[in-house]
Write a structure and sequence with these properties.
This protein is an alpha/beta fold. The protein has a single domain (4-195), classed as Rossmann fold. Helix content is 36%, strand content 18%. The protein is built from 7 helices and 7 strands, in the order βαβββαββαβαααα. A 7-stranded mixed sheet has the order 2-3-4-1-5-7-6, with helices on both faces.
């Protein structure tokens, strides 16, 4: 089980709603559903605590840029006296189809600068991560403008459902082993048609 859940993204109004900030959106929704209030801040993060368990769950957002996320993870762990075994990182992934979720106990950075910096800073890739698919860029030479762009109206409903499910997974993560939670989370997303009620 985890007790530190960190969503990756970039701080600033110009980044709100972008594909690269899906990790932020998941954490914010999870904290809202848990009705958490009050926050703590460090040099490189902001956080709120969920006191539902003996070890409070930390929901944290780095205030560094994405490619300095490792600094924030280190500071969060030091601030709350937690270990890497307690961590779940939530991030976007352009290697996954739009709306697909993939929860893993470890793995490579997959070309994600935030994950790459965490792995380099910590010297290991042995930490859980929940990736939210944002779809593949149309041109692999234009990844940066793609991930820093916003979802189209047609994509918004799909990604909203993915964020919704990912937030639920974050809320359940302190209660369930990652291996158990993976079975529920790593399923293909429901299509828009599946989400509509059947006609009488």
């Amino acid at each position: 089980m985890v007790s530190v859940i960190i969503g990756l993204g970039n701080v600033g109004p110009e980044y709100v709603g972008t594909r690269h900030n899906v990790g932020f959106d998941v954490i914010k929704l999870a904290a809202k559903r848990r009705q958490l209030s009050g926050s703590a801040s460090g040099n490189s993060f902001v956080s709120v605590l969920d006191h539902a368990y003996d070890d409070p769950t930390v929901y944290a957002l780095p205030t560094t840029l994405m490619n300095r996320s490792g600094q924030a993870v280190v500071e969060v762990l030091e601030r709350y006296g937690r270990s890497l075994d307690d961590v779940l990182v939530v991030t976007d992934d352009f290697n996954l189809p739009l709306g697909r979720l993939r929860l893993r106990q470890r793995g490579s950075d997959g070309g994600h600068n935030g994950l790459a910096d965490i792995i380099e800073t910590l010297g290991t890739d042995e930490f859980a991560r929940l990736r939210v698919g944002i779809g593949e860029p149309p041109n692999r030479d234009a990844i940066v403008p793609y991930v820093l762009g916003r979802f189209t109206p047609a994509e918004t409903g799909i990604v909203s459902r993915a964020i919704d499910t990912a937030a639920d997974a974050c809320i359940l993560a302190p209660q369930q082993e990652i291996a158990v939670l993976m079975a529920h989370t790593n399923r293909p997303p429901a299509s828009a048609a599946d989400a509509e009620p059947e006609a009488d």
